[in-house]
Task: inverse folding
């Protein structure tokens, strides 16, 4: 990872967390146990504090930032999809934020809620627990079922496993010049999109 201290504040990464080498951590960043930080993620603690709580993941090209005196927090087992932007907001425990969503300052996404892909959550927004939040500007569309929350937890668990897999076997290598005969696949652990009919 690319890690910078700023004004004497050094990022903190728990030994069981995985941070991809291309991710950037600056200043007041705290990454808890079992977290996963994906390629090209930017966690900028150069004004406010950035916190990933235990088991959270923040995926490829995500950005976390905030104003001075703010905490931008992803709660325990939070799941932040590719390209999302979090700025000075509070993402509760077991929340899913979809790909390319934006969550603005002072917004609070309550536990076990989903923010849909490409949603724009305005500053100061809040929602009840277990809400489906959609749109631009985002609104609460309905309550989530326990089944939907369980599906999310399965996906989050896979990212916790991925953190361990990366720590154990991810390595820089040279590409092969051609596809080898009977090329193996990554082991299928059964993860599928919600509603997929794939086996």
Result:
């Amino acid at each position: 990872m690319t890690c910078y201290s700023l004004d004497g504040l050094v990022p903190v990464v728990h030994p069981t967390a995985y941070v991809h080498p291309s991710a950037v951590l600056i200043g007041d960043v705290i990454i808890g146990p079992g977290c996963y930080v994906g390629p090209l993620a930017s966690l900028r603690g150069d004004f406010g504090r950035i916190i990933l709580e235990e088991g959270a993941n923040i995926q490829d090209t995500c950005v976390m930032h905030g104003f001075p005196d703010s905490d931008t927090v992803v709660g325990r087992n939070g799941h932040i999809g590719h390209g999302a932007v979090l700025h000075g907001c509070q993402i509760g425990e077991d929340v899913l934020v979809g790909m390319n969503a934006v969550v603005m300052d002072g917004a609070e996404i309550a536990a076990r809620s989903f923010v849909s892909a490409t949603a724009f959550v305005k500053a100061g927004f809040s929602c009840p627990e277990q809400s489906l939040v959609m749109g631009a500007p985002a609104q609460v569309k309905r309550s989530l079922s326990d089944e939907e929350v369980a599906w999310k937890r399965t996906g989050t668990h896979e990212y916790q496993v991925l953190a361990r897999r990366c720590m154990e076997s991810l390595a820089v290598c040279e590409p092969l010049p051609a596809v080898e005969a009977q090329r193996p696949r990554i082991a299928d652990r059964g993860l599928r999109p919600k509603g997929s009919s794939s086996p």
Summary: Residues 38 and 60 are 5 Å apart (CA to CA). The longest helix spans residues 146-169. Helices lie at 146-169. The chain has a mean pLDDT of 95.
